[in-house]
Amino acid sequence: MGKAKSKYFLTGLLIVMPVLVTVYLFVSLFSFFDNILGRYISQMTVAYFDLKIPGLGLLVFIFLIFFTGFFATNFIGRKLFIYFEKLWLKFPVVKKVYPAAKQVTHFLFSPKPQGTLHKVVLLHYPRSGIYSLGFVTNHCDDEIKLKTGKDLLNVLIPSVPNPWSGFVLFVPASEVTYIDMTVEEAIKIIVSGGVLNPKDPIDKYSSNFLGE
Prior knowledge:
Helices cover 56% and strands 15% of the residues. It is of the alpha+beta class and 212 residues long.
């Protein structure tokens, strides 16, 4: 009977925990994006209608993203965007933070990766004979190449379970091995701690545990 109770508990844990983690992440993201504009919109709706509408800030935020994308894709919008971006970069603090934030955003969400960017590689890390997955994020700065005399690449070694944190290494291009794996497939391995491989179905291990 004790073994049966243990199995019931573990089975329930396997079913409930992924749901709770997913709901928690969804609620956290919902609250974060809703609060960007929601706090100001809520003040207006409460003042004029005595009503607070959860999620209205998120809807307005999504609308602004679509509107910005639509406006920036036409000729006038592109010109205005370039003008305001140059103006924005004249602020001392902004010009230090904005370019890095822009490059990271393009790396994460750009639908058209170019050259070696967005590539998954294998390299010897933390020592020779042990391989780690890495993301080639950019070509190394010319100053660093000049000082080292080597053709280097910027490689992000991701951590578990958050693949967008980790270590940035400057690795000789000759020492990385490109593999036929997408960034999304590599993230699947990293987030799962190696439990899942890219081609594994999401229900593989739960089905085995449930005896199906």
